[in-house]
């Protein structure tokens, strides 16, 4: 079931032209490292034994956000059906880190990939009940057709990369 | 736009013609200047919407759920207002319910001034480019358009920047949005490039969409970073948790909401829904209906003031630095907590009434409040595809549902564009919350009719028009609303009436008085009506005999074929297109079904399309009374004209008692579907004129037939009879009954019609089920376009 769900998630991401890597926790740091481009900012990852590469600035100033090319954040969960990652507006700055840089790298645990929107709402409700109060469902890359043609990367990131952490 | 008479003074006859001419000229201008950009965008979204709907298994369930939630929410609105106030205040924000535009504007302006000049240090920071002028960044919000918030803020010295790219372009051009979802849909890339060239000191000219987008992003990015206040709308507001939902593809709403310290969300009170869980069907359907995407890029569910750290670009301490961010378990529920990052944030939710509570109390307009502003109704509308929201829109809202909004909102006016809804019902299948948009338009039209003063031209059509409507009604409307009376007269005096009607002086008179465009072919009335013909060949008795004889030729007649049909001879079939009526009678008899063709009352379709509800209501009762006995006796009411069938199966729900409506709607059938049903139940198709199996034929279904889900059955019938039908894709033929005759809409009608004819192969025979569609196709293609049964019926 889970494998299926993750497979479906990866296919949905592919359709959205979002690249994806599926790695074991022990290889996570390397996988993140190779997904970085330019100066990078990030939010510490809540997954046991997984840390961000050293060159990721984890206590960025607002200026760092603007200068960074890549922002790395955890995703609270992901929705396979649509290729969605759920980013929390946490005090650690997940929201601006996921939003400001041109490239967003989202890290999600395999066990947090749920099959469909309904299951996503189960997670959302649970999170809100537990005290979270702001979450964004981010699907694919920021885009607009307002300037006479479809363009990616408008106010939000124009590139998205998802790293799925295999459960041990 | 032509001047409207709205102060009780009545226009002279000549000025009515002038008004028509001015409307025609304005629509012609919009088609030329904006139509080329609007059509590919709107119809493209519509095609994607239709595909996505078709691919979504539970789409109807989703629509029903969304609708049920809205019904419940609007029902409980006063209670939800209390709930949301408690929830937002508990989070540390403020709720303000504004009575009207002025109230809302004054409140927001005060918040902006406070945020910029008050305790907020950033307002005077060196990085601030405009000194003490407050700066505001906004994400797209139709509600703030509705109240002209930008004007108020600017008048009070604030710099206001729209950050949605389309909305920003509109702001630069000092233009108004032309589509609920794509405000700058009417502008081409070249026009946008020229606009930026004129507005900015550009080092290099911007050409591609990517270059234009990059420039906008950089420019607006800076504005967002410097702003004192971010203003957003809200697609939905969850009362229970005080959560506002922002749906965007660009990401600008997220930035506006979380970057400045102060966030103001402005939304109509109708955006409230009870629980977080209620969001699910809306999150699922809003992008599907708007653009045909499965979900929007960003669906933000934000219960502000959010815990996200504030961003001060003049400060070089880490974002989460001074707060207790290291301890993620810290209680962040209390905004006054010193360690709480959201303590720096301020949030105001402004909920706008501005007429909505009155709409809620109005049985007919209430449905409008269920609208989630997805724009699907605009995209699916053939007339909108031609003229866009500047032609088919009011002060703020555009497209089909605009009439409901503009009529319901304080100080808005739905009069000028309402007639562009022809009642074709194509939007009915598109709307994610199942709003009966054409009905709202009919109701508003009826109210507009009643609001007018007596017309000078009444005498011209009096006697011809025994209706229930106020005497101020536009004579053209009255004429088309009583077309049955005119048809009876014209048939009685045919062919003389046809010669007279075609004479140039008469055409000029008809144009001046009734607004019937001279360029449109008038129907040719027949001296012998269908009812007369049917009687002259022996009536019901003879039909029974013929049907019996046909049955004897069948090997075996299943019980399910023991039927009797009452054929509804609508005005047009009875008086003009008599041949399709004859074809229907011959086909049914040949398949063993005896037919009656009584002289039945008009359906009320014509007055309905003119907004004459009282007349239609009376006609519905008469029609029902006239067929009740047949229905009780188990006969089937077979309807040739799809718009009449739509009246029986849709609009009559509003006009007849429930049981009568059910009886009628369950026992009335579309002619082609009925014939296909007979074949499916064992009737012998060989008695029809069958094709060779691969004979190409193009079939244009009727708008209302498609909405009723009946297009497929005609296609199946044609296939069954040895044809290889190809169906047309264009939403509408552009005719829709009286619409194409009217002077002011003639050119729009032709524009829409040409999109349809461009799909049709020059060599293919063409058939159409609707009379108006057939007329339109015949005049544009210059060849006969019969009803499908005229091709299939035995001679
Ligand atoms: S009326 Fe329906 S289709 Fe039209 S904008 Fe509103 S929700 Fe969308």
UniProtKB/TrEMBL annotation, chain A:
Coiled coil: none annotated. Residues 65-165 form the LUD domain. It comes from the Archaea. SUPFAM superfamilies: NagB/RpiA/CoA transferase-like. InterPro entries: FTHF_cligase-like_sf, LUD_dom, NagB/RpiA_transferase-like. It holds the Pfam family LUD_dom. This is Lactate utilization protein C. It comes from Natrarchaeobaculum aegyptiacum.
UniProtKB/TrEMBL annotation, chain B:
Coiled coil: none annotated. Residues 1-21, 119-140, 306-344 are annotated as: Disordered. GO terms for molecular function: 4 iron, 4 sulfur cluster binding; oxidoreductase activity. InterPro entries: 4Fe4S_Fe-S-bd (IPR017896), 4Fe4S_Fe_S_CS (IPR017900), FTHF_cligase-like_sf (IPR024185), Helical_ferredxn (IPR009051), LUD_dom (IPR003741), LutB/LldF (IPR004452), NagB/RpiA_transferase-like (IPR037171). Residues 320-333 have a biased composition (Low complexity). GO terms for biological process: lactate metabolic process. This is (4Fe-4S)-binding protein. It comes from Natrarchaeobaculum aegyptiacum.
